[in-house]
Specification:
single chain; 171 residues; alpha+beta; Alpha-Beta Plaits; six-stranded mixed sheet; two-stranded antiparallel ribbon; 4 helices; 24% strand; SPOR-like_sf; Cell_div_SPOR-domain; SPOR domain-containing protein
């Protein structure tokens, strides 16, 4: 019993295979499309209005309105983490003992985008990576803690979205 050789069947299988491979390759998202969408979302996030601490308070049913302004100081403890990081571009001299971290990312593209925006605003931002492969965006780096605290407060005043900025103590 011999098999009948059918060249049409072979061509049909090859054709379907090529279509399947081509379809799978065209379904993946491109890095440039992802980057454009990410930057658009970040711009929208930055443009959101910032609420202030001013609240009107009505004390009596009369027409008198009292406005009180509440100011809160940032007395929450600052998160600190100690680990070894290396600059992605190889210039480890830019990384000092106290690093103000404004973002941690798994994808390098996201970290680079934030780093480039900070550099455009005049910050000496550095893209660093730890041993676990996480990308850290270092807004600024200092030798002493007091200067780093002042820089962090200035950064938070200028960028309200960085209220969770923290210190990384480079080993």
């Amino acid at each position: 019993m011999s098999k009948n050789y059918n060249p049409m069947r072979k061509n049909w299988i090859w054709g379907l295979s090529l279509l399947l491979i081509g379809g799978m390759a065209s379904c993946k998202s491109s890095q440039s499309a992802y980057k454009a969408a990410y930057e658009k979302a970040q711009e929208k996030k930055i443009e959101e209005p910032v609420t202030t601490g001013t609240t009107p308070v009505v004390t009596t049913p009369s027409t008198t309105t009292t406005t009180t302004t509440t100011t809160t100081t940032n007395t929450a403890p600052i998160r600190e983490q100690s680990e070894k990081i290396n600059a992605v571009d190889g210039n480890d001299a830019l990384l000092k003992s106290y690093n103000v971290i404004v973002g941690s990312f798994r994808q390098r593209l996201n970290a680079q985008s934030l780093c480039e925006r900070l550099r455009a605003d005049g910050y000496p931002a550095v893209l660093a990576q730890n041993a676990q492969g996480m990308y850290r965006v270092v807004a600024c780096s200092f030798d002493d803690r007091a200067t780093a605290v002042q820089a962090r407060e200035g950064l938070q005043a200028k960028y309200p979205q960085f209220t969770d900025a923290w210190f990384l103590i480079n080993k």
